TrEMBL record:
Record protein name field: Transcriptional regulator FeaR
Superkingdom of source: Bacteria
Cross-referenced InterPro entries: AraC-bd_2, AraC_XylS_family_regulators, Homeodomain-like_sf, HTH_AraC, HTH_AraC-typ_CS
SMART domains linked to this entry: HTH_ARAC (SM00342)
SUPFAM superfamilies noted in UniProt: Homeodomain-like (SSF46689)
PANTHER family: ARAC SUBFAMILY (PTHR46796:SF6), HTH-TYPE TRANSCRIPTIONAL ACTIVATOR RHAS-RELATED (PTHR46796)
Kinase found in the keyword field: no
Gene3D superfamilies from the UniProt entry: Homeodomain-like (1.10.10.60)
Pfam families with a match to the protein in the record: AraC_binding_2, HTH_18
Sequence intervals crossing the membrane: none
HTH araC/xylS-type domain mapped to chain residues: 225-326
Keyword terms, alphabetized: DNA-binding, Transcription, Transcription regulation
Amino acid sequence: MIKTLFRSDDLPPADRLNQFEEFQTITRNPMRVNSERPEDYHATVRAVDLDGVKVAELACAPSELHRSPTLIRKADPEVYSIVYALRGEVGVAQSGREAALGPGRFALYDSSIPFHIRIAADAEAEADGRGTATVVRAQVPRASLPLSRDRVARLLALPLSGRQGVGGLLTQFFTSLTVDPVGYRPTDAPRLGTVSLHLLTATLAHHLDADDRVPGESGRRTLVLRVEAFIRQHLHEPRLSPSDIAAAHHISVSYLHRLFQAHDLTVSAWIRHQRLERARRDLADPALRTVPVHRIAADCGFSDHATFTRAFRAAYDIPPRDFRRQVLATST
Protein backbone atom coordinates (compact mmCIF):
# COMPACT_ATOMS: atom_id res chain seq x y z
CA MET A 1 0.00 0.00 0.00
CA ILE A 2 2.92 2.36 0.66
CA LYS A 3 4.83 3.67 -2.37
CA THR A 4 8.31 5.12 -2.85
CA LEU A 5 7.88 8.59 -4.39
CA PHE A 6 11.48 9.79 -4.38
CA ARG A 7 14.83 8.03 -4.02
CA SER A 8 18.03 10.03 -4.30
CA ASP A 9 20.21 6.93 -4.70
CA ASP A 10 18.84 6.67 -8.24
CA LEU A 11 20.43 10.02 -9.14
CA PRO A 12 24.00 11.33 -9.56
CA PRO A 13 25.24 12.82 -6.24
CA ALA A 14 25.57 16.31 -7.74
CA ASP A 15 21.89 16.35 -8.75
CA ARG A 16 20.29 14.91 -5.62
CA LEU A 17 19.55 18.06 -3.61
CA ASN A 18 18.27 19.99 -6.64
CA GLN A 19 16.06 17.10 -7.69
CA PHE A 20 14.69 16.69 -4.19
CA GLU A 21 13.89 20.41 -4.00
CA GLU A 22 12.16 20.17 -7.38
CA PHE A 23 10.18 17.20 -6.09
CA GLN A 24 9.10 19.27 -3.08
CA THR A 25 8.10 22.30 -5.13
CA ILE A 26 5.72 20.31 -7.36
CA THR A 27 3.86 18.67 -4.47
CA ARG A 28 0.48 19.99 -3.36
CA ASN A 29 2.25 21.69 -0.41
CA PRO A 30 5.33 23.28 -2.14
CA MET A 31 8.48 23.89 -0.08
CA ARG A 32 12.06 24.96 -0.66
CA VAL A 33 14.90 22.75 0.59
CA ASN A 34 18.38 23.68 1.81
CA SER A 35 21.25 21.62 3.18
CA GLU A 36 24.66 22.47 4.55
CA ARG A 37 26.13 19.45 2.75
CA PRO A 38 24.65 19.49 -0.77
CA GLU A 39 27.49 17.36 -2.13
CA ASP A 40 26.57 14.51 0.23
CA TYR A 41 22.79 14.84 0.16
CA HIS A 42 20.43 11.89 0.24
CA ALA A 43 16.68 11.51 0.72
CA THR A 44 13.99 8.88 0.31
CA VAL A 45 10.26 9.55 0.49
CA ARG A 46 7.67 6.82 0.94
CA ALA A 47 3.98 7.66 1.24
CA VAL A 48 0.47 6.26 1.42
CA ASP A 49 -2.81 7.99 0.54
CA LEU A 50 -5.67 7.11 2.88
CA ASP A 51 -8.52 8.56 0.86
CA GLY A 52 -7.37 12.17 1.31
CA VAL A 53 -5.23 11.73 4.42
CA LYS A 54 -1.62 11.47 3.28
CA VAL A 55 1.06 9.85 5.44
CA ALA A 56 4.72 10.04 4.41
CA GLU A 57 8.06 8.90 5.77
CA LEU A 58 11.10 11.01 4.87
CA ALA A 59 14.60 9.65 5.49
CA CYS A 60 17.15 12.31 4.65
CA ALA A 61 20.38 14.09 5.45
CA PRO A 62 20.12 17.19 7.69
CA SER A 63 17.82 19.63 5.89
CA GLU A 64 15.81 22.80 6.19
CA LEU A 65 12.42 23.10 4.49
CA HIS A 66 10.74 26.46 4.08
CA ARG A 67 7.27 27.45 2.86
CA SER A 68 7.03 31.13 1.95
CA PRO A 69 4.03 33.40 1.21
CA THR A 70 4.94 33.13 -2.49
CA LEU A 71 4.71 29.35 -2.40
CA ILE A 72 1.45 29.55 -0.48
CA ARG A 73 -0.03 31.74 -3.20
CA LYS A 74 1.23 29.28 -5.78
CA ALA A 75 -0.59 26.32 -4.22
CA ASP A 76 -2.37 25.80 -0.93
CA PRO A 77 -4.07 22.46 -0.21
CA GLU A 78 -5.49 23.87 3.07
CA VAL A 79 -4.24 21.01 5.20
CA TYR A 80 -2.97 20.52 8.72
CA SER A 81 0.20 18.48 9.05
CA ILE A 82 1.68 16.75 12.04
CA VAL A 83 5.35 15.81 12.07
CA TYR A 84 7.62 13.88 14.41
CA ALA A 85 10.98 12.13 14.28
CA LEU A 86 11.51 8.39 14.33
CA ARG A 87 15.26 8.99 14.31
CA GLY A 88 17.07 12.26 14.77
CA GLU A 89 15.39 15.54 15.62
CA VAL A 90 12.93 17.90 13.95
CA GLY A 91 12.02 21.51 14.67
CA VAL A 92 8.96 23.41 13.45
CA ALA A 93 8.57 27.21 13.42
CA GLN A 94 5.26 28.92 12.60
CA SER A 95 3.17 31.85 13.84
CA GLY A 96 5.96 33.20 16.02
CA ARG A 97 6.48 29.90 17.86
CA GLU A 98 9.11 27.19 17.49
CA ALA A 99 8.88 23.58 18.65
CA ALA A 100 12.02 21.48 19.14
CA LEU A 101 10.80 17.90 18.95
CA GLY A 102 12.75 15.27 20.78
CA PRO A 103 11.62 11.65 21.24
CA GLY A 104 7.91 11.25 21.91
CA ARG A 105 6.90 14.73 20.70
CA PHE A 106 5.06 15.91 17.60
CA ALA A 107 4.00 19.30 16.26
CA LEU A 108 1.15 20.64 14.15
CA TYR A 109 1.43 23.19 11.35
CA ASP A 110 -0.91 24.82 8.81
CA SER A 111 -0.20 24.87 5.05
CA SER A 112 -1.75 28.36 4.71
CA ILE A 113 0.79 30.03 7.02
CA PRO A 114 4.55 30.31 6.30
CA PHE A 115 6.61 27.78 8.21
CA HIS A 116 10.16 26.52 8.59
CA ILE A 117 11.15 22.91 9.34
CA ARG A 118 14.60 21.86 10.46
CA ILE A 119 15.61 18.18 10.29
CA ALA A 120 18.77 17.05 12.07
CA ALA A 121 20.44 13.70 12.62
CA ASP A 122 21.04 12.61 16.19
CA ALA A 123 24.52 12.89 17.69
CA GLU A 124 25.25 9.15 17.38
CA ALA A 125 24.38 9.12 13.68
CA GLU A 126 26.57 12.15 13.06
CA ALA A 127 29.48 10.51 14.89
CA ASP A 128 29.11 7.33 12.82
CA GLY A 129 29.03 9.36 9.62
CA ARG A 130 25.53 8.23 8.66
CA GLY A 131 23.99 11.65 9.20
CA THR A 132 20.44 10.52 8.42
CA ALA A 133 17.19 11.43 10.15
CA THR A 134 13.79 9.83 9.63
CA VAL A 135 10.57 11.77 10.13
CA VAL A 136 6.89 10.96 9.67
CA ARG A 137 4.46 13.57 8.38
CA ALA A 138 0.69 13.20 8.08
CA GLN A 139 -1.49 15.69 6.16
CA VAL A 140 -5.20 16.04 6.92
CA PRO A 141 -7.64 18.38 5.12
CA ARG A 142 -8.63 21.23 7.45
CA ALA A 143 -12.25 20.96 6.36
CA SER A 144 -12.37 17.37 7.62
CA LEU A 145 -11.86 18.33 11.27
CA PRO A 146 -14.80 19.45 13.43
CA LEU A 147 -12.67 21.92 15.43
CA SER A 148 -12.57 25.57 14.37
CA ARG A 149 -9.42 26.88 12.73
CA ASP A 150 -9.12 29.67 15.33
CA ARG A 151 -8.99 27.14 18.15
CA VAL A 152 -6.57 24.84 16.38
CA ALA A 153 -4.29 27.83 15.70
CA ARG A 154 -3.48 27.85 19.43
CA LEU A 155 -1.60 24.56 18.96
CA LEU A 156 0.51 25.41 15.92
CA ALA A 157 4.25 24.83 16.38
CA LEU A 158 3.90 23.62 19.96
CA PRO A 159 5.58 20.41 21.19
CA LEU A 160 2.72 17.97 21.88
CA SER A 161 2.97 14.60 23.59
CA GLY A 162 3.03 11.60 21.29
CA ARG A 163 4.28 9.17 23.89
CA GLN A 164 1.12 8.37 25.86
CA GLY A 165 -2.64 8.81 25.84
CA VAL A 166 -4.49 9.70 22.65
CA GLY A 167 -1.38 11.39 21.23
CA GLY A 168 0.48 8.12 21.68
CA LEU A 169 -2.24 6.26 19.77
CA LEU A 170 -2.01 8.85 17.01
CA THR A 171 1.75 8.56 16.46
CA GLN A 172 1.73 4.77 16.88
CA PHE A 173 -0.96 4.52 14.23
CA PHE A 174 0.85 6.69 11.69
CA THR A 175 4.16 4.97 12.42
CA SER A 176 2.62 1.55 11.82
CA LEU A 177 1.51 2.66 8.35
CA THR A 178 5.09 3.44 7.33
CA VAL A 179 7.21 1.05 9.38
CA ASP A 180 5.01 -2.06 9.35
CA PRO A 181 2.42 -1.78 6.55
CA VAL A 182 2.23 -5.53 5.83
CA GLY A 183 -1.14 -6.05 7.47
CA TYR A 184 -2.94 -3.37 5.42
CA ARG A 185 -4.58 -3.66 2.01
CA PRO A 186 -5.45 -0.94 -0.52
CA THR A 187 -9.15 -1.49 0.21
CA ASP A 188 -8.48 -0.50 3.84
CA ALA A 189 -7.50 3.06 2.82
CA PRO A 190 -10.90 4.78 3.32
CA ARG A 191 -11.37 3.20 6.75
CA LEU A 192 -7.83 4.05 7.80
CA GLY A 193 -8.39 7.62 6.66
CA THR A 194 -11.45 7.82 8.89
CA VAL A 195 -9.45 6.44 11.81
CA SER A 196 -6.79 9.10 11.18
CA LEU A 197 -9.36 11.90 11.31
CA HIS A 198 -10.93 10.63 14.52
CA LEU A 199 -7.58 10.18 16.24
CA LEU A 200 -6.31 13.61 15.23
CA THR A 201 -9.57 15.26 16.29
CA ALA A 202 -9.46 13.56 19.68
CA THR A 203 -5.79 14.47 20.17
CA LEU A 204 -6.28 18.14 19.33
CA ALA A 205 -9.43 18.31 21.45
CA HIS A 206 -7.50 16.82 24.37
CA HIS A 207 -4.86 19.54 24.12
CA LEU A 208 -7.48 22.23 23.71
CA ASP A 209 -9.42 20.92 26.70
CA ALA A 210 -12.42 20.80 24.36
CA ASP A 211 -13.51 17.19 24.55
CA ASP A 212 -17.07 18.29 25.18
CA ARG A 213 -17.06 20.12 21.85
CA VAL A 214 -16.10 17.06 19.84
CA PRO A 215 -19.11 15.34 18.24
CA GLY A 216 -20.30 12.31 20.18
CA GLU A 217 -19.44 9.95 17.32
CA SER A 218 -15.80 11.08 17.40
CA GLY A 219 -15.62 10.48 21.14
CA ARG A 220 -17.17 7.04 20.77
CA ARG A 221 -14.82 6.13 17.94
CA THR A 222 -11.82 7.24 19.99
CA LEU A 223 -12.92 4.92 22.79
CA VAL A 224 -13.25 2.06 20.30
CA LEU A 225 -9.70 2.72 19.09
CA ARG A 226 -8.41 2.67 22.67
CA VAL A 227 -10.21 -0.62 23.30
CA GLU A 228 -8.87 -2.14 20.07
CA ALA A 229 -5.31 -1.07 20.97
CA PHE A 230 -5.72 -2.62 24.44
CA ILE A 231 -6.94 -5.90 22.95
CA ARG A 232 -4.01 -6.09 20.53
CA GLN A 233 -1.57 -5.47 23.40
CA HIS A 234 -3.11 -8.35 25.39
CA LEU A 235 -3.81 -10.91 22.67
CA HIS A 236 -1.19 -13.25 24.14
CA GLU A 237 -3.32 -13.65 27.30
CA PRO A 238 -5.59 -16.71 26.75
CA ARG A 239 -8.05 -15.58 29.42
CA LEU A 240 -8.63 -12.10 27.97
CA SER A 241 -12.38 -11.52 28.22
CA PRO A 242 -14.98 -8.79 27.60
CA SER A 243 -15.28 -8.22 31.34
CA ASP A 244 -11.51 -7.64 31.63
CA ILE A 245 -11.59 -5.17 28.73
CA ALA A 246 -14.62 -3.31 30.08
CA ALA A 247 -13.06 -3.03 33.54
CA ALA A 248 -9.80 -1.66 32.10
CA HIS A 249 -11.74 1.14 30.38
CA HIS A 250 -14.23 1.83 33.20
CA ILE A 251 -17.28 0.93 31.12
CA SER A 252 -19.94 -1.76 31.42
CA VAL A 253 -19.76 -5.01 29.49
CA SER A 254 -23.06 -4.20 27.79
CA TYR A 255 -21.71 -0.84 26.59
CA LEU A 256 -18.56 -2.57 25.33
CA HIS A 257 -20.72 -4.89 23.23
CA ARG A 258 -22.63 -1.91 21.82
CA LEU A 259 -19.35 -0.28 20.80
CA PHE A 260 -18.49 -3.35 18.73
CA GLN A 261 -21.80 -3.61 16.90
CA ALA A 262 -20.25 -1.68 13.97
CA HIS A 263 -17.81 -4.60 13.46
CA ASP A 264 -20.71 -7.02 12.95
CA LEU A 265 -18.80 -9.24 15.37
CA THR A 266 -19.08 -9.91 19.07
CA VAL A 267 -16.16 -8.78 21.21
CA SER A 268 -15.00 -12.37 21.64
CA ALA A 269 -15.23 -13.01 17.89
CA TRP A 270 -13.20 -9.87 17.18
CA ILE A 271 -10.53 -11.01 19.64
CA ARG A 272 -10.35 -14.40 17.91
CA HIS A 273 -10.10 -12.74 14.49
CA GLN A 274 -7.20 -10.57 15.67
CA ARG A 275 -5.44 -13.61 17.12
CA LEU A 276 -5.80 -15.50 13.86
CA GLU A 277 -4.57 -12.53 11.83
CA ARG A 278 -1.51 -12.16 14.05
CA ALA A 279 -0.80 -15.89 13.81
CA ARG A 280 -1.14 -15.72 10.02
CA ARG A 281 1.38 -12.84 9.82
CA ASP A 282 3.82 -14.67 12.10
CA LEU A 283 3.54 -17.89 10.12
CA ALA A 284 4.34 -15.95 6.93
CA ASP A 285 7.37 -14.24 8.48
CA PRO A 286 10.64 -15.82 7.22
CA ALA A 287 12.39 -14.61 10.39
CA LEU A 288 10.10 -16.90 12.44
CA ARG A 289 10.38 -19.99 10.23
CA THR A 290 12.14 -21.98 13.00
CA VAL A 291 9.50 -21.15 15.64
CA PRO A 292 7.14 -24.13 16.02
CA VAL A 293 3.54 -23.59 14.96
CA HIS A 294 2.26 -24.44 18.44
CA ARG A 295 4.55 -21.76 19.92
CA ILE A 296 3.18 -19.13 17.54
CA ALA A 297 -0.35 -20.20 18.44
CA ALA A 298 0.40 -19.87 22.15
CA ASP A 299 2.01 -16.45 21.66
CA CYS A 300 -1.22 -15.32 19.96
CA GLY A 301 -3.38 -16.44 22.89
CA PHE A 302 -4.44 -19.95 21.80
CA SER A 303 -3.93 -22.24 24.78
CA ASP A 304 -5.00 -25.36 22.87
CA HIS A 305 -3.18 -26.24 19.62
CA ALA A 306 -6.00 -28.37 18.21
CA THR A 307 -8.45 -25.52 18.72
CA PHE A 308 -6.06 -23.16 16.94
CA THR A 309 -5.66 -25.53 13.97
CA ARG A 310 -9.42 -25.91 13.55
CA ALA A 311 -10.02 -22.15 13.83
CA PHE A 312 -7.21 -21.33 11.37
CA ARG A 313 -8.48 -23.84 8.81
CA ALA A 314 -12.04 -22.57 9.15
CA ALA A 315 -10.90 -18.97 8.63
CA TYR A 316 -8.41 -19.47 5.78
CA ASP A 317 -9.35 -22.84 4.20
CA ILE A 318 -5.90 -24.28 4.89
CA PRO A 319 -4.17 -25.80 7.95
CA PRO A 320 -1.55 -23.52 9.55
CA ARG A 321 1.39 -25.82 8.72
CA ASP A 322 0.43 -26.01 5.04
CA PHE A 323 -0.11 -22.24 4.94
CA ARG A 324 3.38 -21.61 6.33
CA ARG A 325 4.93 -24.09 3.88
CA GLN A 326 3.25 -22.47 0.86
CA VAL A 327 4.03 -18.89 1.87
CA LEU A 328 7.66 -19.49 2.77
CA ALA A 329 8.22 -21.55 -0.39
CA THR A 330 7.15 -18.58 -2.55
CA SER A 331 9.33 -16.14 -0.59
CA THR A 332 12.60 -18.01 -1.18
